[in-house]
Write a structure and sequence with these properties.
alpha/beta, binds zinc ion, six-stranded mixed beta sheet, 8 strands, Aminopeptidase, 191 residues, two-stranded antiparallel sheet
Length: 191
């Protein structure tokens, strides 16, 4: 279990925009297992999150909405131009040495990131079949470290794990993942 972020942090979550970062893209496919390509899955989930948030009246900015490559520091720079925002990056995981690893992971940097990660964790456990296996503090991940707004990188499941991978190939499952991300974001927002 990760450290608990103080509940008082919620007062600082008065964002009106969510910057959605679909991982990888273009020349960088991300991980590929069983013909499932991370960059395509990530963009699909990101677009579903965008649709879900807009339906709830929350503004969104997409780092990419096509199959294009964007440098990591460029992603952080783009995010830092958006006032009153939080940052959510969408990825899929792989472990070519441990094919038993499964479940989503929330990667964060700093207490505000942890606060958001915990809300996403709860939403995944409630709404997504593969659940959330852990929260991971990442001190050197560029998109988390260089982003001024609260930021979480969601690893939506293991493409190396047969069942996770198969689930991630289903549009119904990716919609459930997107719904969980939207629910977690809404739960983090200051009331
Ligand atoms: Zn990735």
């Amino acid at each position: 279990m990760a450290l608990a972020a103080p509940a008082s942090l919620q007062a600082q979550f008065r964002f009106n925009t969510v910057v959605i970062d679909a991982g990888h893209g273009g020349k960088d496919p991300g991980t590929i297992w069983y013909h499932r390509v991370e960059k395509h899955l990530a963009l699909d989930v990101a677009k579903r999150v965008e649709t879900g948030l807009r339906a709830m009246g929350i503004k969104t900015v997409m780092i990419r909405r096509t199959d294009t490559f964007v440098e990591l520091d460029q992603r952080a720079r783009l995010a830092n131009k958006v006032p009153s925002s939080i940052f959510v990056s969408v990825h899929f995981n792989a472990d070519g040495k441990d094919f038993g690893k499964n479940g989503a992971e929330m990667h964060y940097y700093g207490p505000k990131g942890l606060y958001l990660a915990q809300r996403l964790n709860t939403a995944f456990d409630k709404n997504v079949k593969l659940g959330c296996r852990m929260l991971v503090q990442r001190k050197r991940l560029v998109v988390l470290r260089e982003t001024k707004a609260p930021a979480v990188l969601v690893e939506c499941g293991y493409l190396t794990h047969r069942t996770n991978s198969w689930l991630c190939s289903l549009t119904t499952h990716r919609q459930a993942v997107a719904n969980a991300i939207v629910a977690g974001i809404l739960a983090s927002r200051a009331k």
